[in-house]
Amino acid sequence: MDLMAERLAAFLTGYASLLAEMRAEGMLMLAALAGRDVAAMEKGLNLGQARQKRLAQYEAQRLALQREAGGEGLTLRQMAEAQPEAERAGLLELVARVEEEARQLRSLNQKGLDLAAAQAGFSAAGPPPLAHYAPGAKKAGDNLRPSLETKA
C-alpha cells in the first residue's frame, strides 16, 4: 500500500471511531437530558471535553496530511480519490463512514438542542424577547421599598 494511502486509511479509521464514540456519548447525553439526570449530564460534559481535545488533534492531523499530500483545501473525499486506484475503493468506504458518523452526530446534536430549548420553554425561534430588560423598562418590584428605608 502506498505510504500516503496507508496514513490516510489510519487517519480515517481513527476519525470514524472517534465520531462513533462521540455519537454514543451524545445518545447518553440526550437520554440524560430527557430524564433531567444532572449527574449523568455532568459526566457526559466532562467526557465531551476530552473528546473535543481529541477532535482538535484529529483536525491538526488532517491539516498535516493535506499539506504532505500537497492538497491543502481538499476534502477527505478528494484526498481519497487522488490515491492510487488499488487503494481508492477502501479509502472511499472509510470516507463514507466518516461522513455518515458526522451526519448522525450533527442530527443528534440538533435533537439535543431542540430538547433543551423545549425544556427551557423556548420555541424554535429562540428564547423569549428580552424587552423587560431594556434600559428604562419597569422591573418587577420597582414599586416595593425595603422595609427599613426611611424618608429623608
What's this entry about, in short?
The protein is an all-alpha fold and 152 residues long. The chain has helices spanning 3-34, 38-69, 76-81, 85-120. It has one domain (3-121): Methane Monooxygenase Hydroxylase, Chain G, domain 1 (Up-down Bundle), CATH 1.20.58.
Notes on the structure:
By secondary structure, the protein is an all-alpha fold. The protein has one domain (3-121): Up-down Bundle (Methane Monooxygenase Hydroxylase, Chain G, domain 1). It is built from four helices and no strands. The chain has helices spanning 3-34, 38-69, 76-81, 85-120. Helix 1 (3-34) runs parallel beside helix 4. The longest helix is centred in the C-terminal third of the chain and has 36 residues, at 85-120. The termini are far apart. The relative contact order is 0.13.
Based on Cα principal axes, name the global outline.
Answer: elongated
CATH architecture: Up-down Bundle
What is the number of strand segments? 0
Number of H- or I-type helical stretches = 4
Q: Report Rg.
A: 25 Å
Question: Strand content of the residues, in percent?
Answer: under 5%
